[in-house]
């Protein structure tokens, strides 16, 4: 039964991702990295990701965007909770992409830390998620400011570290529960139930990163998007 529901939610996630990606081709985001972030959000937020995209991130059609120029800078007229929500998806996009890259590598190599393959999996996932997370911050900082490469990298690390750690901790907590509750004490990235559990883990990570993003926005370290 778990395998059945795994396939259902994974297929819904892929479908949501593709629908968002197709829509974005007609309505490109003002911030280019969000062209990638929103489809990734659909992967771990099946169906709900489409609602979030339409409600909080959908841009006007490309042929109308000149008339709306400037509307989407740093959240535009969104309520603060929505701006923080989109900032959290931005963090989640980098984390998710890193985890998707690292998980098969960890399973294929059997990489272990202190004799634990789960710990090895988490370490590789954190390294990859941190790299992509900082990149997702660095690119828009460079594109939207006069910061040099070094300054932009420092700002990206400052903006992303807290929210990324909060996201990954939530994700790890759920994957530990899942590993010992339903997956025989191991994480095998070549099974559908692993990725179904990862979908849930990403949602938990999103929830734990939201307060961190709110705090970072309040302190002016990040901008609501």
From TrEMBL:
InterPro entries: DUF4396. It holds the Pfam family DUF4396. The keyword Ligase does not apply. Residues 81-222 form the DUF4396 domain. Keywords: Membrane, Transmembrane, Transmembrane helix. The keyword Transferase does not apply. The chain crosses the membrane at residues 6-24, 36-53, 118-141, 162-182, 194-217. This is Uncharacterized protein DUF4396. The lineage of its organism: Bacteria, Pseudomonadati, Pseudomonadota, Gammaproteobacteria, Oceanospirillales.
